[in-house]
Amino acid sequence: MTREVPVAATVAELRAFVRTRRALGERIGLVPTMGALHVGHLSLIEAARQRADRVVATIFVNPTQFGANEDFSRYPRTFDADRAQLAQVEADLVFAPAVTEMYPAGFVTTVSLAGPASAELEDRFRPTHFAGVATVVAKLLNQAQADVAVFGEKDYQQLLVIRQMARDLDIPTEIYGAPTLREADGLALSSRNVYLSESERARAPSLHQALDAASRAIARGASIDETMTQARSAVTAAGFEIDYIEARDTQTLAPVTDGAVGALRILAAARLGATRLIDNVAVAAT
Ligand code: AMP
After folding, report:
1. pTM greater than 0.85
2. Which atom of ligand 1 has the smallest separation from the CA of 181?
């Protein structure tokens, strides 16, 4: 039988755990999540395990990163199943604070961002999202004092925003980006995939297929503009409404034109019915 993973509900309990392990000379890894865990999240735990002696997973559906018309209240909450999955991958602690523990009465501070947070990708459609993410992640990093924190490339703009924030605020935790886990048909694993109807689920892989085809075309030397136009047509034909599909500089997220030097990333967000999916792929260096 697998051991149950202990749960910390307060910052004081989290800090006591970290203090004890640190005193033994152990390295701490942190994996922040909003729960509704899937194999993609578990791969982050494994990545943290390779870089630390103890792994703390956090489960907190952060209200401040959801817009007024987004899915905060219906976001899937599956704590018992999450805890069982974390036991399978031998996480050492789950930090699952209440909203009042993270945002006690009188809380007023928000991290203000520019750079990758203002690339006109996710931020264009979710204008308050990254301030909510960066503030909660800054809090989690300060609370846990981890040596390394693992985030998914699935949320690529978020990963760059967090790296920039940690660097600018002198947070000493290393930020490690882990690759996206996908279903066999290419659909990126996401807690939001449970919202898809059967017919939407059947069409959902088209998003990744289009990004993958675009990535290969650009790597072969095709025009970026024409390739993006084709990718948008393919995704629209599959029944999506596109928020954006763009090729950008992989480090800065600045727009790119043909002949640009440096590595590229293609990033996308598109809605299938009421479900908004995001994905991104690297363009292989030529
Ligand atoms: P969330 O799904 O918002 O709770 O994300 C928690 C962490 O898991 C973030 O760092 C995400 O980027 C990461 N993540 C989400 N989906 C995947 C996936 N399919 N593969 C790898 N990491 C993922």
Report:
1. yes
2. 20
pLDDT in the model for residue 257: 85
Q: If you average pLDDT over every residue of the chain, what do you get? A: 96
Residue 136 neighbours by CB distance under 10 Å: 21
Q: What's residue 45's pLDDT?
A: 98
Pick the CATH number of 191-282 from 3.10.560.10, 3.40.50.10420, 3.30.1300.10, 3.30.300.30: 3.30.1300.10
Whether 177 lines ligand 1, by a CB cut-off of 6 Å, is: no
Mean pLDDT, residues 64-79 taken together? 95
Active site members: 41
Crossing angle of the two packed helices 79-88 and 39-51, in degrees rounded to 10? 40
* Strand ranges across the sheet with 241-249: 241-249, 264-272, 275-282
Distance from the CA of 258 to the center of ligand 1, in angstroms?
31
Q: 7-178 adopts what CATH topology? A: Rossmann fold (3.40.50)
**Which of the listed residues 79, 155, 157, 280 should we mutate to test ligand 1's pocket, taking the one with most ligand atoms within 8 A of CB?**
155
Tens of pLDDT, residues 39-48:
999 999 999 9
The DSSP code for 63 is G
Asked if pLDDT for residue 22 goes beyond 90, the answer is yes
**Closest residue by CA, ligand 1 atom 14:** 152
The two three-digit tokens of residue 144, written as one number? 């846990």
